Amino acid sequence: MTLPQVSHRRVLTASLVGTAVEFYDFYIYATAASLVFGKLFFPATSASAQLMSAYATFALAFFARPLGAAAFGHFGDRLGRKSTLVASLLLMGGSTVAIAFLPTYAQAGWIAPFLLCVLRFGQGFGLGGEWGGAALLAVENAPPGWRARYGMFPQLGAPVGFIAANGLFLILGLLLTPAQFEAWGWRIPFLLSIVLVGVGLWVRLKISETPAFTQALKEAPPAKAPLAELLRRHPLETIAGAFAVVACFAIFYLSTAFALGYGTTRLGYSRETFLSVQLGAIGFLVAGIVAAGWWSDASSPRRVLITGCAATVVAGFALAPMIGSGSLVLIWAFLSLAMVLMGLVYGPLGAFLPGLFPARVRYTGASVAFNIGGILGGGLAPMVAQALADRGGLVPVGLYLSAAALISLVALACVKRQTV
Hints:
By secondary structure, this protein is mainly alpha-helical. The chain has helices spanning about 5-40, 45-80, 80-100, 105-110, 110-130, 130-140, 145-175, 180-185, 185-190, 195-205, 210-220, 225-235, 235-245, 245-265, 270-280, 285-300, 300-325, 330-345, 350, 360-380, 380-390, 395-415.
């Protein structure tokens, strides 16, 4: 793929790095919640209850994200994309780094989970303004006919962040004993987030405002209350966009956070073994995102999303027999399939969601829709899946995935027009 000019390469790098930080921060939390947070931050009851508590803190950030989307969307639509993206990255990264210094429940009692929840909320609030701004940074700089391919660059931050997080936890697992990892090793990935945040800030401070936002300011003053205007003039697009995202979040967090917790507890695999299997599947996410970007420009983002959601409905029925088979080869095969489908239902979103809204409320609209969809599809997914697995095994978990994809499929059927 040949990029037209140096400034565009810088813009696409800035959009990719930001979402890489986002997924790194979110996934190191998801991994730590699956592996050690239950033991470290909650009173000893049962292993399942501790894991559920850890997953509850994981879900908290998803509820903070729409609030962050509204707040950062407000300033992104009034003041511009660049400065808002810098602020969201600072809040997100600062909250993540601070988690590295938290005391445990044994050291501080109830204060430990309280502080964990506060920082997790800060993570989510900052993340609420991250994806929408990164997507707009890419697509509002795209030449004609390249919108989806530019829009896939923020999406490529997902596998980059996943590989960084997963690979780091794998290395720590190989270098440290379980006791060392539980005592202090888990803090290292949170501390190292400061490196990614620094790179992201350095790149973003060098970019300029997007042409679409500049043109919108020339045509009319910015909206005084972007969220109010969004809900008044574009309620159906916002609702449909939010439900269209459900499949994306569900498939990702069921095949990463939930699968890791289930594989290392119920199936009895070592942490290093299961992380290696997940790492071996992530390349298929990259392939799915790139294929979706090119395919979306050749047809439409909506058509690719519909195809991905329909395939995910079917894939849900394969979850139980493949993950529950006891065969690492079949587990890897399902996770690889899930990552391909994740690429198809995630890759086009960078072009699809901004295309639902005019430039004057686009930051708010894309961010709110994406993050409400995150609550519905991802925030509760590991916790609900764990509860379903405890009561009925993996079959209801697979049905849960199929139902999430069906919801997105119905939402996409209700969306027709794109504004850019």
